[in-house]
Amino acid sequence: MIASFLLLLLAGVPVAFSLGLAGAVGIVTGLSPAMLATLGTNTYNSIAKYPLIAIPLFILAGLVFERAGVAARLVRFAQALIGARHGGLALVAVLVCLIMGGMSGSGPADAAAVAMVMLPSMTRAGYPKPFSATLIAASASTAILIPPSVALILYSIVVPGVDLRALFAAGLFPGVLAGLALLVPAFWLSRRHGWETPGEVERPPLGESFRQAIPALFAPVLILGGLRSGLFTPTEAAVAAVAYGVVVGLFLTRELDWRGLWRLFGEAATISGVVLLIIALAGIFAWAGTMLGTFRNLAEWLIALSDNGAVLLALIMLAVLLAGMLLDAISIYLILMPILIPVMQHFEWNPVWFGILLAMNIAIGQFTPPVAVNLMVTTEVAGIRLEQTLGWALVFVIAMAAALLAVALFPEIALWLPGVLGYNL
Length: 425
Description:
Layout: H1 2-10, H2 15-30, H3 39-47, H4 54-67, H5 70-82, H6 88-104, H7 107-124, H8 129-140, H9 150-158, H10 164-193, H11 206-229, H12 234-252, H13 258-292, H14 294-305, H15 309-324, H16 329-346, H17 351-365, H18 373-382, H19 390-409, H20 412-420
Helix pairs in contact: 1-2, 2-13, 3-13, 4-7, 4-12, 4-13, 5-6, 5-11, 6-7, 6-8, 6-10, 7-8, 7-18, 8-18, 8-19, 9-16, 10-17, 10-19, 10-20, 11-12, 13-16, 14-16, 15-17, 16-17, 17-19
Membrane topology: Multi-pass membrane protein
Function: Part of the tripartite ATP-independent periplasmic (TRAP) transport system.
Main location: membrane
């Protein structure tokens, strides 16, 4: 089953169909051809889950905020706060990506919105396009950590008993830490190469830019505040985010019209369809692997590699990093979690902390070639080749890996906030 999955991937078959076909191969060869009758049931059961409604809604919310002119207003406000200095625009890019991550929950959407606004300004200030594109792609990867994260929603569904509110709270400080880790080399490189000479970049008026940014700044407050207060569940928070984004785009920024909103519905449906198709067909793979004992055997093999939990955790992180360089977060969770859950339980790792470590690792993969979905978006906007960013990508990979190591060594970075808020850990 696993061999057929890898062969299908190498042959260029999309991940969703590779998972479904490999599951069918496992059923035919290891169980009975008559068990193929379960394909429909397993496909339906995989997506017939109420929390999954949040995924297409947060995808739609991210698209609405992106087209509502939110990123441009956040950039102006951040520029007004920071002013013109060496590395000032780099700081603006990281800060805006962190705030946008609190609205979209999607790295590629975050990268596209910020790159469209920031790249022209950074290029005029003397930043090389490969550096700017890589910095924005890396910063946008924090969207997988900053709530609301689509990947963390799926993790809470795949891993039984994990409180999504605890995951959202746990991702906040590691997400900010990752942003700060990226900012250190960006700021140092800017000063070393003399990019963005003070006085060359216009500083917008603070009061006016703050007034225009208020609707954007309120969006994360609405989502996280509503969750903390119990006003709505995570799924209802997605509905609130969409409704608020529509109001902002249509009536406040007025950069969105009804025809554009209708097109966004279609675009969100297309993206959501791809995501849910992967989840649906992965159900066949998961059911076949469970019935065949594949996942149990692989978990036992992993546990037998070392009695030292730290050593095994390092090996798992390395494997997830390599997977993140080739696959998206949703596919990684669906493929690896059935194997990793028994390992996590054996070593008694906290599932919330472990989920954040996986998310940080996958975030690194989002801007690490050869696939690097975020980097593909920003290089397309910048009009450069992906190969031109390799050196810069390595710098930011090392920086974010340092943040990942800090969270691994000090779990309280992730677990302190959900513990204080009283969520189930």
